[in-house]
Amino acid sequence: MNVYVYGVGTTSFGKHPDVPLAKLAEDAVLEALLDAGPGAIEAAYVGTVFGPFGSGQRALRRLGLLGIPIVNVENACASGSTAFHEAFWSIRTGRFKRVLALGLEHLTSRFDGPIAPEATDAEGRSGLSLPALYAMSAARYMACHGLTDRQLAAVTVKNRQHASTNERAQFRTPVTLEQVLSSPMIADPLTLLQCCPLSDGAAAAVLGARRDNPRDVAVLSCVLRSGHLWDYRSKHVWGQDLVSTTAAQAYKHAGITPDEIDVLEVHDAFTIGEIVTLEALGLAALGEGGRLAESGVTALGGTHPVNPSGGLISRGHPLGATGLAQLAEIVGQLRGDQSTRQVQNARIGLVETMGGGVSGIDGNACVITVLSGAAQ
Amino acid sequence: MNVYVYGVGTTSFGKHPDVPLAKLAEDAVLEALLDAGPGAIEAAYVGTVFGPFGSGQRALRRLGLLGIPIVNVENACASGSTAFHEAFWSIRTGRFKRVLALGLEHLTSRFDGPIAPEATDAEGRSGLSLPALYAMSAARYMACHGLTDRQLAAVTVKNRQHASTNERAQFRTPVTLEQVLSSPMIADPLTLLQCCPLSDGAAAAVLGARRDNPRDVAVLSCVLRSGHLWDYRSKHVWGQDLVSTTAAQAYKHAGITPDEIDVLEVHDAFTIGEIVTLEALGLAALGEGGRLAESGVTALGGTHPVNPSGGLISRGHPLGATGLAQLAEIVGQLRGDQSTRQVQNARIGLVETMGGGVSGIDGNACVITVLSGAAQ
């Protein structure tokens, strides 16, 4: 079966300590249902990392979306994309005709400050938290490829600029290179403004098996992989091998090459993430990714606009919701709906989400989705 | 595609505060892999409620089961059965040929006493925890149908007796009706010995698309549903409608009637659960379920043996692992492997798991699986 996205919906992203998680989810789902138009939802896949047990059921009960199979899924930061992936395959294989994918997270009710490592996470408790893992990647990448602090910081400058007209983004104020570089150091070389914030929010998509409407966006492929044990002999930094193997499969299933992609949302939880990911996706050669943001190639108006929504760094990173927030942005781009941040003539879009990383393993999950608008 | 269970594995169930969660999972997975025989695992679905994010990846990395799609799922107490359900459908639809389903939980590292309600769970915080929800069902059922305290307690007596020769069960000492009735009251009318314990453990199954071995057990159907908003006009107690609608679908897909079932594992988190579930499954008329345990019908040697493993009450209830522990018992029964607790000539088996319940909603998830041994 071919698979289409019929509708998407999101909340605004940011700190919403006084808005219950179920309310955020309902807002996103209602928007997606209205966008999709009428039709019975046959199943729902719901991604969250820190939501309470039964998060999907709690979110969907007031909407009357019960009695159907509801499966809550978790794959760290790729939980929302995993929900989408499961929904995609449930339609691709002919099991269902119309399915809801939902992602939700309410981090401000779980954490006062940064996300604390689990009690049983010895490496995290010893300091190898995710910011540290990304910082080590950045330091190694700088040593191997001559990446500069300014190139790293340029990713934030670009993504903040993109978010400036996204009214649902968490940070909409543009920043300068100097501001990024002089913000407090979190994990050398990553400064505060190079790290994604703690966010609350929800995002949803309705998928179906038949193109009913020219606004429906085709899902050409959706691939999920878990990382292998990280090979210390690899010349690549953490995450790069997992993204590139996942991308190879996604391109093959979609029948496209990287140069055909008009617009991308990728996992810039930290600035180095965007750089490494774009190389792994084949949009730059190894060691060349640092030049992309600096040169304007990945800015709106460039040849390969990346993170037009502002990315995780500026739109926000409500873990379980992130993948579907990325998806909503790309669906909007492929429909030509994104107004001031619209990429002209966008026909092929890509969403990449990286989930977690237990040290020693190269990512819990990477999900890559290739989409095509009606013009295709 | 037809779907078969190639192999199952479990840990022993009980309090294992000093055994890491990943070690429990590895033991269960290794046993299942050895039982299944050689063959590459193409994907894994992993159920847990309170495990850390990326539980599946953490559990599988030391076994080298990485690089494949791994999806962690959560559906309250039906998380393990949901993992099995997702694995089943991934084979049924032809997506994969060989898949691992794993359930795991380490409650002793998360809770000192009973599972505390979430901070945002207003009903739970007000006292409507799961024991209270089941107790209200029991009280209503007693008022409507004349169920007696002794009939309720007989469920524990039977299941403890069953567990007495299950070396992996948490409680293996038989108890008398008097002991059950005189144990401390937890939520009237449910006494301590009528409530499942806090448990740690893991259980796994390997599923595949082709019968390779006469010991492979066929999965005739596997159905997952979420509950509807509970209808106060219903003459049934909490959970009953959800189990009966799920069962109707499972019987239809499997092409069987309830009287063909030779052996069952059902969700006796509390004694009333087994009684209500057996009625909902069609093994007794409404109001007649209370007589089953007392009369011996559901004991080993009776016409419909229920919970030969000892059930959640005696084998233990490590939430995410429970559904796959139930499945492992039934697979063993259909293979004729269960020695002193073997049901003679068992050809059709059923597993029923009930997941949670947010108040106002009739269960987060019910999963029912119908299996058939080689003799079938």
In a nutshell, what does this entry contain?
Chain A is α/β, with parallel strands linked by helices and 376 residues long. Chain A has helices at residues 21-36, 55-60, 79-92, 122-125, 130-145, 149-163, 177-182, 240-254, 271-280, 290-295, 311-315, 319-335; strands at 3-10, 43-47, 70-74, 98-106, 185-187, 190-191, 200-208, 217-225, 263-265, 348-355, 365-372.
What does this structure look like?
The structure is a homodimer of 376-residue chains. In chain A, the strands form two sheets. Chain A has a nine-stranded mixed β-sheet with strand order 3-2-4-7-1-8-11-10-9. A two-stranded antiparallel ribbon of chain A has the order 5-6. The first copy, chain A, folds into two domains: 3-111 and 200-218, Peroxisomal Thiolase, Chain A, domain 1, CATH 3.40.47; 127-197 and 220-372, 3-Layer(aba) Sandwich (Peroxisomal Thiolase, Chain A, domain 1). The relative contact order of chain A is 0.20. Chain A is of the alpha/beta class and 376 residues long. In chain A, helix 8 crosses helix 9 (271-280). Chain A is 35% helix and 18% strand. The interface between A and B is large, with 51 and 51 residues.
Structural descriptors:
two-stranded antiparallel sheet, homodimer, 376 residues, 35% helix, Peroxisomal Thiolase, Chain A, domain 1, nine-stranded mixed sheet, 18% strand, alpha/beta
